[in-house]
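An instance noted here:
***
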Amino acid sequence: MIYHNPHKKNSMLTTILACAVCFWTFSLLWLYFFQADVLAVAQHVLSGGVTHYNRSVGALLITLVLYLLELSIFAITRLSRRTHALTYLPSMLVLAFLSDINPDIGSHFSLGAWRWVAPIVLVLWAGAVWLSRQLLPFDNDNKLPTGFFSRRVWLNLLQMATMMLGVAAIGNSNATFHYRTHIETALMRGDVDEALKVGKESDETDAQLTMLRVHALARKGRLGDELFTYKLAGTSADFLPSRNSLFILPADTIWKHLGGRPIYKLTAERYYHALETDSLATKAVGDYVLCGLLVDRKLDDFVKTLPTYYEPDSVQPLPRHYQEALVLYNHQHNRATKAIANDAMEEQWNALRQLEADYPDATERRLRVFEAFEYTYWWYYLYGNKLL
């Protein structure tokens, strides 16, 4: 007479189900929310731009393939008790490999440390599987409570949690890299508003990220109003893709928005001049020129150039950062330009000066000014920690 132990069968199914739910939940969330843009860039680069990554299909397909890998390993090892979670380690290892994309993938692709790390981990895993198989006959916890709150399930979930933490630790966590990939994929979709939200409150930035934000702001017509609400890096020359590489967004997207791609390699100044000479310059060129002068702290040149693009007597108010620059210039030179900023801007300037006078200690003064005027051109120009 053959006797089936329903207690053992239920315990095994509970453990398998708990690990499967844990893996599917983590993998789908990880791939859909945290790695989608990075994987889109990787696929674009490795395929030479022939194929495109879909975050929903990609997350589901990768998770399914990795789960089928686990099922194959489970069919071979039959690990179903305290160490069932070990059947997921190869799948987690592949997931970690897919998450470890280097920011320089655009220039070259290399397996790096994975050439020796992966074999070592797999050898150690094979040893742990063999040992677990040898200890299976001594596992006498079949009469212990079953269910999702049993010791066996929690031991497996602890192993799953350890592997998930390993994937997160191995995955690329470079903030600027993730911001750049997210902005580029958003711009590819035409979602400029989403691109402008990415990393706005973060201090992490680089010249490429600044270039993308300048382009996005120009497309919304808000470059002169909001550029200095972001952390910036580089100089005005970094506004153009001639000095900075792109992952997935075609460089022509930026060139065409300004008027056209240069035939020869030109400096930013000569490029803008060539566009205007050939009557190809779009409205965005003016803001590129003016904001470039502000980023480079060339206030004298900014004041001389401003009337070229904005009428001094126009009813339309100047962009906010231009007003701030004029107020700063006027007080530096104790004079008034033809283009006068509004009274409210003057009051803000006086508040800044009063705040500086109230805190003679340089460190405290810097902190107070930062808290009140962080997103102004005045902070950028006077304290300068945004230019990296």
Summary: Residues 1-7 have pLDDT under 50 and may be disordered. The longest helix spans residues 6-34.
